[in-house]
Amino acid sequence: MRYVAICVVLILAVVTITSAQSSTGTILGVVKDASGAAVPGASMTVVNSDTNQTRTGTTEEDGSYRFDSLPVGNYQVRAEKSGFSTVQNTLTLTVAQQAVVNFSLSVGAV
To answer: Using the 8-state DSSP alphabet, how is residue 84 labeled?
Structure first.
């Protein structure tokens, strides 16, 4: 009986640890201009190429952005701001990955 109780406790511990693992990742980075200055307020778009699920946001004052809890898969990440050319990158996001995608925007059409 004691052996059975120990086995049950061990199985529950393994199940708890396994279910605590997440099947998501994070995409983050910084958007700068050609001179290396931060670009605050740039529009960021993240599209899961597998599901077409889209998330949007804007960069902070220091040019940083972050998209948490994204399902694993293939993504397109786009940065754009008026007066600059739009830049896009692709990547495959894996479990628990923190993918850093930095952008450098060059002056473009207004």
So the answer is: B
